[in-house]
Amino acid sequence: MIIYEYPLNERVRTLLRLEDLYARVDHFLGLDDPNDHHAALTGIFEILEVASRADLKSDLLQELDRQRTFLDALRSNPAISEDKLNQVLGDIETAFSNLHALSGKTGQSLRENEWLMAIKQRAGIPGGTSEFDLPSYHYWLQQPPEARRGHLAEWMKPIKPVHAALSIVLRVLRESGRTVSLMAYQGVFQQTPADKPAQMLRLVLANDIPCVPEISANKYALNIRFLLPEVVQKSRVYDRDVAFDLIFCNL
User: Fold this and answer.
1) Of 149, 185, 52, 156, which is closest to residue 106 (Cα–Cα)?
2) At residue 232, does pLDDT exceed 80?
3) Contact, 72 vs 97, CB < 8 A?
4) Which stretches within the chain are classed as H helix?
């Protein structure tokens, strides 16, 4: 099965983008080639750009506090495992404290590093990090992998609390899902929204069906078209019936 996630507001869209960027950095950080570590560093720069949204930190703190209050009220519920509850509450408390301890703009210490910011500026230009443009960066890329990895891990420290916090919020959001099995006739599905609009949709599709969903949603309707994944011409609607699951997620 393939899961496609579609955010229905700007806050969730930002969290999903950041989650993808953190996963990419973690992947390349674990490898050894200079090109891998270049990709990790450019990923860190992208995280700084996306995480610079002024209200991101306060949004995450508010949501963590709301989840902490909600879960704490479940302590007397016999159907809830107290050990599991304490573990989740502990994760939330740690993430909240670490995020709250961050001062200033996300990754401010990285923004004050002139060497990094010079690379960031050049990285926005196609081919701008060539060795003749940034000889000191070329020198860094020729250092042993362990040395580069140590620097990258150090540069990740100021932005890790954001990752921990958003991971909890997205986990709660995904686990809140309500699943409905549906059918798109001749590749098209339309539905009027529910009374309580979702914050994210998760569409589950068998990976042997040769189509991809194109989702559009507003307060009036949810529209899904299943398209043939053409790579050489404009996509066309997959004109067969498509069975899929749709998960409506809300915090």
Assistant:
1) 52
2) no
3) no
4) 10-29, 34-51, 56-72, 82-100, 108-111, 114-123, 135-141, 145-156, 160-175
